[in-house]
């Protein structure tokens, strides 16, 4: 059984890898996604738990300013970030507008005293970004495994988005459709 965790190079900054959608069975993909979004540090566990408490108090995470305020009052160093998106012509389809929160783990949570602070992303609308009108059974199963709110290291976010966009592209292909430019990984990460 292939495993993202063991079939790739493990680095100090987290897990990740390169995969092809046709090499993975649906249940293996779902299991790997679930494993991938599990917290790996005490700080990450605390942040996830605090986000679960804070989201209902911030209109289920829709009120990002309030969510930052609540998380800050819980002791997290948070910052609201907005990707402005836009551009000329077709660039507006590749540079998307999106708001998310960054949190820096306290220095005490770093792996080594000289290690830089690790940055975590809180994206309260994460799952919404991957919903498509027409889907395949495989993609629907994968989508069901994605957390509504992403909380994790920034390097994990990029890997997960790349993976999900690959799966989304496969769903579009299977349905005989072309993946729109705003659904490509580079656009989703813009």
UniProtKB/TrEMBL annotation:
InterPro entries xref list: PDDEXK-like (IPR006502)
Any single Pfam family the record assigns to this protein: PDDEXK_6
Name the record gives this protein: Uncharacterized protein
Taxonomic lineage of the native organism: Eukaryota, Viridiplantae, Chlorophyta, core chlorophytes, Chlorophyceae
């Amino acid at each position: 059984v292939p495993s993202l965790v063991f079939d790739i190079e493990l680095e100090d900054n987290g897990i990740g890898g390169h995969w092809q959608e046709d090499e993975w069975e649906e249940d293996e993909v779902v299991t790997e996604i679930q494993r991938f979004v599990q917290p790996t540090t005490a700080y990450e566990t605390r942040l996830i738990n605090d986000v679960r408490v804070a989201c209902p108090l911030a209109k289920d995470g829709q009120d990002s300013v309030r969510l930052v305020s609540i998380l800050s009052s819980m002791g997290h160093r948070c910052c609201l970030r907005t990707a402005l998106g836009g551009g000329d012509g077709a660039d507006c389809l590749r540079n998307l507008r999106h708001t998310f929160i960054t949190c820096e783990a306290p220095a005490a949570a770093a792996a080594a005293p000289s290690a830089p602070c690790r940055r975590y992303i809180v994206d309260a609308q994460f799952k919404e970004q991957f919903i498509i009108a027409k889907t395949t059974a495989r993609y629907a199963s994968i989508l069901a495994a994605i957390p509504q709110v992403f909380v994790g290291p920034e390097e994990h976010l990029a890997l997960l988005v790349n993976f999900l966009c690959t799966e989304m592209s496969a769903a579009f292909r299977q349905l005989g459709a072309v993946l729109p430019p705003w659904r490509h990984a580079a656009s989703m990460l813009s």
